[in-house]
Amino acid sequence: MKREGFFLACLSGLLIPMSCTQLLDDNCVTGKGEVTLVLSAERDLSLTCKSAPAEVPTDDFQVEIFKVEGQSEVRLYRDSYAAVKDTPIPLNAGDYRLLAYYGDPDAYGFDDPYYEAETSFSVRPQSSERISAVARLENVMVTVAFGDTLREDCEEYYAVVRSGDGAELEFKMDETRSGYMPAGMISVELYALTDGKWMYYAGPSTEYSPNDHVVFRLETDLN
Fold it and tell me: pTM for the full model?
């Protein structure tokens, strides 16, 4: 007999912080102040899930340097990390802000992580500067895990994950990838066909922060 009740297990999700290792080292000469950028990024996931996330392509990061003057700033430099790594960058003495990023901050989907690192630093005349920053995931990584009983009980099923600003991702019954959503209020909906009848369950909306990894575990009622 098919079970007709549905519930969402572990609805609040399992949150796994994802960070990137240090960025920026130096190898400079005297004269103007110089900085050399050495960027690395990796994900630290201690979670068993259906598909391991891909490595962040470090060379594809964009690097920008801004000159800071009081409350205003001007961008002086922009290039890919592949073009600037291990290359000293001469800068006049003063205050600066470094921004390094990968991806589109407004995108969402299965292949749309957005990583960002930001730090402020100062350059002195005839000096070499060592700069450190941390790049992290700025959107939310979302995984949907369909339970074994759900798979046995239902002829078809899928889940829709929604964010408070209108973004949505559909996880089909054979989907093994994780997706990426804007941080904020996120909810999951389950649609399942059993005994020729479609059933629907909407979970509550919960707020998630940048760098969270949320796992929604969906299962039929075992009682």
Answer: 0.73
